[in-house]
């Protein structure tokens, strides 16, 4: 259980590994619980989520619009950090969907659908959408327990997945490899790895990731830096590399705040924020947030990071 600074609401995250057959499409499953309080926080630029809000109610700020949660919904991939508020007690069940999974499950362009709540029927066929929408009530009635609800969510995902064309998988996977290669990967390296013209590659990257390659570099550089800075006993060599990836300290703070909603100080170990838990390796799997060679420097087996 974590307690936020200043006596804010206690909360807990429980991450559950995705079933083997869904591992290519999901970062993880999770259960989030909040005590009998109100929590105001910021969600980082994050992948798409399938959510069952079994208890409580939440709201999220999208530019000039405040959207309210329903019993079940999808959170489209976020391209920047977003403020949210939850009135407890609350229990939320989620599936964190990576970019392969979002494309295969929704078929929606992230360029057109991002930073918003989507009703189940926008993503799923009618029957499956209704099943998802009824899970919160079944949990409240005691018909399913926590594990059974997560299993039901996995079954819904299995039924909704479509096979992606090999060319599209290539774009997604090569882009993820490129993002994982460095704090500042070269654009030409990405274009050279894809069987498309530069303009076509830019269009497809925006379709699957919601942003241009240039902006994706900014996003994952900031998220990777935030992840590392939130770790205890960060080696000085890696900390120096993080700072070299930005123009100066002001640039580092500005970018991390825009994409994670936190300053480096608020991301320090012991800060007590749910953001720190979401930025950890349990919350991600598609992109190696530690970058090439970082696992060895941190004393980890790179195959165990995710």
TrEMBL record:
Task: Show the GO MF annotations.
Answer: DNA-binding transcription factor activity; sequence-specific DNA binding
Mind telling me which Gene3D superfamilies this protein's record contains?
A: Homeodomain-like
User: What stretches pass through the bilayer?
Assistant: none
Determine the domain of life of the protein's source.
Answer: Bacteria
Which ranges carry the HTH araC/xylS-type domain? 166-270
Protein's recorded name? Helix-turn-helix domain-containing protein
